[in-house]
């Protein structure tokens, strides 16, 4: 029996990781620790919420005493840490919240794990989920981020994630804690909060609303289907080497404007509209401050050492994703209206 905390399990990637672990490992007890900020939505986990090996704990990772209590209550031996403030635009407006959750929250989890495990590292693991944004920005010269690329974060979001990565590695180097860090590229797929490019634009196209493209739309991102990230997390949690870093990405670079055109054409086709009829929704707006030009991950190490590779081609992944949002308009309406925040009261408070 393994008792594993997954933090941020009510968010986008976390919900896919929780679902994978709960379904694949009936012998594990998965404790989803989530504060339910605006980004946390328990409706993302409706299909597994009554499984016997799943427990939800509403808690703030910055609340050290509560996190200690959760470690004791469930005799935790593994942590998969995804809870974070994750949206770059929000970090530009409110950097303090990012420092608090991403840095102090991670430190609070590390310290709780250290005190609870008390030097007995046998069978223990602290796995921290980070981002490619800590490496900064690439030129258009074909170079890729490797595990050796120097940290060079530019946004308050990436600076806070970089800082949390350093704390995780410091806990290995100083105390011997068995830690692992992974840095992943942009994820896409079902259950992503519609402040992020892909779900925001799918929903806007459906409602014929303008599509705010930052700058000239020339920035490049490297897109990975979220379930492929969740599979990589499963593999690395079980087989990854302690104290190592693994980059996760699909070698799938897209210029924003090209990606946006694919999304428009896909939505139009699936809605039975004339293909391309909504291209006129594209609206160039003021660029994001400090907007990183290009991200691209080299995931050769993960492939060579652990045999991971993405299972979906991008064309298949984007088709699946657009279909999911169009078929789950109720989920989208619930999020955009704010009603999803009542779900916790209905599902958990009354128990
Ligand atoms: P998200 O914003 O969708 O979800 C974050 C979750 O964390 C939410 O459920 C939220 O309620 C919870 N949370 C926030 N603050 C908390 C706190 N103080 N205590 C407890 N829970 C809290 O994020 P996401 O896109 O799913 O990203 C998950 C992780 O993966 C983050 O660490 C992010 O940096 C990293 N990451 C994301 C991407 C991406 O493309 N989305 C890519 C690489 C890495
Ligand atoms: O690279 C991994 C990162 O990917 C994660 O660490 C972050 O948590 C995640 O939010 C994501 O960051 P980005 O800033 O790349 O994602 P976002 O969806 O916000 O934007 C993708 C690109 O689209 C980026 O170049 C900015 C641009 N954009 C975004 C929005 C929301 C627009 O042009 N218009 C928009 O309205």
Task: Write up this protein.
The protein is built from twelve helices and twelve strands. The protein is of the alpha/beta class. The protein has a domain at 3-193 and 224-254 and 293-315: 3-Layer(aba) Sandwich (Rossmann fold). Strands 3-2-1-4-5-6-10 form a seven-stranded parallel β-sheet, with helices on both faces. The longest helix has 23 residues, at 95-117. The chain is globular and about 60 Å long. Bound molecules: nicotinamide-adenine-dinucleotide (NAD) and 2'deoxy-thymidine-5'-diphospho-alpha-D-glucose.
- Whole-angstrom Rg: 20 Å
| CATH T-level topology of the domain at 3-193 and 224-254 and 293-315 | Rossmann fold
Mean pLDDT: 97
Give the name of the CATH architecture of the domain at 3-193 and 224-254 and 293-315: 3-Layer(aba) Sandwich
Bound molecules: nicotinamide-adenine-dinucleotide, 2'deoxy-thymidine-5'-diphospho-alpha-D-glucose
Give the CATH H-level superfamily of the domain at 3-193 and 224-254 and 293-315: NAD(P)-binding Rossmann-like Domain
Segments where pLDDT lies below 50 for 5+ residues?
none
Give the percentage of residues in beta strands.
15-25%
General form:
globular
Order of helices and strands: EHEEHEHHEHEEHEEHEEHEHHHH
Strand order of the largest sheet: 3-2-1-4-5-6-10
Helix-strand layout with pairing:
Layout: E1 2-7, H1 12-24, E2 28-34, E3 54-58, H2 64-74, E4 78-81, H3 88-93, H4 95-117, E5 125-131, H5 156-175, E6 179-184, E7 186-188, H6 197-206, E8 211-214, E9 220-225, H7 226-239, E10 245-248, E11 253-255, H8 256-270, E12 282-285, H9 300-306, H10 314-327, H11 329-337, H12 343-349
Parallel strand pairs: 1-2, 1-4, 2-3, 4-5, 5-6, 6-10, 7-9, 8-12
Antiparallel strand pairs: 9-11
Helix pairs in contact: 1-7, 2-4, 4-5, 6-8, 8-10
The structure holds nicotinamide-adenine-dinucleotide (NAD) and 2'deoxy-thymidine-5'-diphospho-alpha-D-glucose.
């Amino acid at each position: 029996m393994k008792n594993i905390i997954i933090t941020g399990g009510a968010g986008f990637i976390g919900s896919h990781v929780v679902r994978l672990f709960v379904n694949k490992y009936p012998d594990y007890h998965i404790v989803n620790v989530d504060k339910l900020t605006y980004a946390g939505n328990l409706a993302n986990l409706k299909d597994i919420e009554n499984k016997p090996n799943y427990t939800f704990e509403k808690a703030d990772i910055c609340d050290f005493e509560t996190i200690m209590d959760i470690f004791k209550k469930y005799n935790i031996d593994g942590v998969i840490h995804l809870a974070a403030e994750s949206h770059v635009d929000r970090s530009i407006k409110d950097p303090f919240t990012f420092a608090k959750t991403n840095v102090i929250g991670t430190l609070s989890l590390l310290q709780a794990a250290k005190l609870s495990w008390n030097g007995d590292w046998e069978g223990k693991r602290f796995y921290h989920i980070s981002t490619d944004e800590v490496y900064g920005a690439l030129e258009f010269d074909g170079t890729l981020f490797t595990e050796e690329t120097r940290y060079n974060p530019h946004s308050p979001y990436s600076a806070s994630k970089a800082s949390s990565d350093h704390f995780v590695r410091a806990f290995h180097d100083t105390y011997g804690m068995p830690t692992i860090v992974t840095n992943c590229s942009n994820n896409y797929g079902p259950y992503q909060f519609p402040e992020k490019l892909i779900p925001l634009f799918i929903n806007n196209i459906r409602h014929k609303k303008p599509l705010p493209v930052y700058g000239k739309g020339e920035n490049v991102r490297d897109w990975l289907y979220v379930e492929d990230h969740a599979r990589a997390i499963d593999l690395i949690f079980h087989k990854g080497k302690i104290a190592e870093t693994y980059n996760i990405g699909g070698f799938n670079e897209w210029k924003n404007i090209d990606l946006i055109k694919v999304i428009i054409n896909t939505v139009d086709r699936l809605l039975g509209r004339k293909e391309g009829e909504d291209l006129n929704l594209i609206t160039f707006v003021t660029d994001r401050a400090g907007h990183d030009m290009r991200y691209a991950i080299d995931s050769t190490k993960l492939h060579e050492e652990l045999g991971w590779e993405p299972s979906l081609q991008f064309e298949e992944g984007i088709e699946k994703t657009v279909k999911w949002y169009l078929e789950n308009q109720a989920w989208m309406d619930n999020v955009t209206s704010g009603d999803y925040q009542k779900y916790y009261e209905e599902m958990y408070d009354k128990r």
